[in-house]
């Protein structure tokens, strides 16, 4: 528990047997539940996670690969069942610095935010360490997301290092969350419809010497662009529908 908050960390993992031991070992002891979601891995991801000595580790497994968004949604559902106050997402590849966890949790502790996301671009180091093509892609998608998702003050939309309150998760349809790389953009639009307060905080990204990105035009950029561009009409339609449902509900009760 962190200063009165019951914290669950969701670790989406796909073929991360080599990286998981280090990732799990560095998660702080104050985290109550570590929910490793094996998204249909072909390696020993589930076994490595289950055999890890860290207390509180639970393995959730998809029999087939469904995508990182689907894995995060599975972890969120389990965190809600466990009555966690906050669900943090940390990738299984060890790129997210556990030392930044208090930074993510602080706005929630202070009652200032329902959802807090990392902003790697607030740290000057990222301009030197992030691969150039990925840097350009992230900036472009972040600018588009600012225009379409409803939170113009935010940046680094693709950063998956986030903390969501029980209230925020309860206000969105997790079953409808985009299942693959575009899930952060889709989630922001859903949070806007749910009236969630969202805040950026600076975080650091760790790139190991053997790190290789699995992102390509076919598997990530095109799907994310689709999600980003549909966000504006979808969230306006969803907000209108929600308002109509409230009006119908009031009329029925009267």
Question: How does this structure look, described?
Answer:
The protein is globular and about 50 Å long. The model has no long low-confidence stretch (mean pLDDT 90). The protein contains nine helices and seven strands, in the order βαβαβαβαβααβααβα. Helix content is 43%, strand content 15%. The relative contact order is 0.15.
Mean pLDDT: 90
Provide the low-confidence segments as ranges.
none
Q: Given the helix and strand composition, which structural class is it?
A: alpha/beta
Spatial ordering of strands, largest sheet = 3-2-1-4-6-5-7
Strand content: 5-15%
Work out the radius of gyration. 18 Å
Main beta-sheet strand count, sense and barrel state: 7 strands, mixed
N- and C-termini, Cα separation: 44 Å
Query: Percent of residues in helical segments?
Result: 40-55%
Number of strands: 7
Classify the oligomer.
single chain
Q: Compute the number of helices.
A: 9
- Coarse shape: globular
From N to C, what is the helix and strand string?
Answer: EHEHEHEHEHHEHHEH
Secondary structure elements and their pairing?
Layout: E1 7-13, H1 20-25, E2 33-39, H2 45-50, E3 57-62, H3 68-81, E4 86-89, H4 101-109, E5 115-119, H5 126-129, H6 132-148, E6 162-165, H7 166-170, H8 183-193, E7 198-202, H9 217-253
Parallel strand pairs: 1-2, 1-4, 2-3, 5-7
Antiparallel strand pairs: 4-6, 5-6
Based on the model shown, name its key terms.
254 residues, alpha/beta, seven-stranded mixed beta sheet, 15% strand
